Amino acid sequence: MKRFVVGFLLAVLAISTFAVTFLTIATGGTAGVYYPLGAAMADIWTRNLKNVNASAQSTGASVANVNLLKNKEVDVIFVQNDVVYYAYAGIELFKDQPFKGLRGLATLYPETIQIVALADKGINSVYDLKGKRVAVGAAGSGTEVNARHILLAAGITYNDIKVQYLSFAEAAENLKNENIDAAFVTAGHPTAAIIDVSAVKKITIVPVDEKIVQILQKNYPFYTKIIIPANTYKGVDKDVETVAVKAMLAVREDLPADLVYEMLKTLYANQKRLIEAHAKGEMILPETGKEGMSIPLHPGAEKFFAEMGI
Ligand code: GLU
Fold this sequence. Notes:
This protein is of the alpha/beta class. It has two domains: 20-109 and 247-307, D-Maltodextrin-Binding Protein, domain 2; 111-245, D-Maltodextrin-Binding Protein, domain 2 (3-Layer(aba) Sandwich). It has helices at residues 2-18, 34-48, 62-70, 81-89, 142-153, 168-176, 192-198, 210-219, 257-269, 271-277, 299-307, and strands at 21-26, 52-57, 76-80, 102-118, 133-135, 162-164, 182-187, 203-206, 224-228, 240-252. Strands 1, 2, 3, 4, 5, 6, 7, 8, 9 and 10 form a ten-stranded mixed β-sheet that branches. Helix 2 packs antiparallel against helix 10 and helix 9 crosses helix 11. The chain is elongated. The N and C termini lie far apart (54 Å). The model has no long low-confidence stretch (mean pLDDT 95). Bound molecules: glutamic acid. Glutamic acid (GLU) binds at residues 28-29, 32-34, 61-62, 80, 111, 137, 141-143, 186-187.
């Protein structure tokens, strides 16, 4: 009997010591910023957290990620702070389907709404997009939500344009081939997909003017003003005024608090690895991790930020 008990206890110990927690991170398209940063995070967590095996997955981005998290197909998501709020509250495209188990880990960096147009198509303002072939982001992206809001603020619906649901990589290809005239890209700037187009085509970045900003902010408080500095992209030699939201990480409330705490701790401790993956890693700092947080923080994140005095 005693031998049995000892054996049993050893087995339990072995299982609890070696049981691996798999963390799947939902990111975005491979030409975006979420994807390389997500891959770096997976690497950081796998290397530094005991018995954690994390991996990053390419997805349609924000909206798709919320649904993947809700269906328990993934454990951590990159998401825009506007989209995650709509999901938590059950409004906009999540109307009557609130996801109350959503919790925030940290906000990361501003995501700029960039409207890229081929320079010779006469598109100098949002209003000029009427009648054009416009990529509005991948189906299930936050980009697509922003495209709809901005067009509507300018009095344009999807019936007034030729809508194309394309990932950043697909949009870049189609701009290069002149199959489309313009594309919305909500991502940290500079964005690789836009650099890619600017290398072979003359591009403009269409400003989001003050009048549209006013309308947007009245309906959707998450849009903040931002300037894309001159020469961020080849051929765009003036500052461009537009709006931005924030990239953040979210999880379900059932993720253990001590794990969340360790995830944040190791994430910030390995910022260098994030910067190696993408320049936006420079902005991933605990000091700004609660700025623009639009849903309740996970208790593990609360503890982390409280300890840091943030
Ligand atoms: N914010 C974008 C979206 O949710 C994705 C950005 C990225 O992939 O870096 O549509």
